[in-house]
Amino acid sequence: MNSQAKIGNTDGLVFEEKKFLVARKTWKKGDTIPKHNHEGMDVIFSVIKGKVSAHINEAETHELTSGMLMYFDGKNYISGEILEDTMVHIVQIKQAQ
Predict the structure, then answer these.
(1) Hey, what CATH topology would domain 19-94 get?
(2) Sequence ranges of the domains in the chain
(3) Half-sphere exposure of 5 toward its Cβ, with a 13 Å CA cutoff?
(4) Which of 18, 31, 37, 67 has the smallest number of Cβ neighbours within 10 A?
């Protein structure tokens, strides 16, 4: 029987399809997220466990803890500091052309 579901349990890129991708990242307290963006994508940043101080365009800061989600247009730049050992899931959805 062919499965219709894909199962992922790895750090880094988990799924990549035509219209979206899903990644899982784990960081240690004190790690940083370098400034970067995801042009052409909508981004959902979901904290599974831990605490992150996330900066959008170096103009706003959001302290995200376990269970919190943040959505932003990928044209914006994200950076951050890891305040506790942390795991996040990141979903990037391609924007309509």
Answers:
(1) Jelly Rolls (2.60.120)
(2) 19-94
(3) 2
(4) 18
pLDDT band at 1 (very low <50, low <70, confident <90, very high): low
Element containing residue 89 per DSSP (H, E): strand 86-94
Considering the entire predicted model, what is its pTM? 0.90
Distances (CA, A) of 61 to 4, 27, 58, 87: 40, 19, 7, 19
Contact 84, 53 (CB under 8 A): no
pLDDT tens track for 7-57 = 888 899 999 999 999 999 999 999 999 999 999 999 999 999 999 999 999
Alpha-carbon gap, residue 6 to 75, rounded angstroms: 29
In the chain, what is the straight-line distance between the N-terminal and C-terminal CA atoms, in Å? Answer: 37
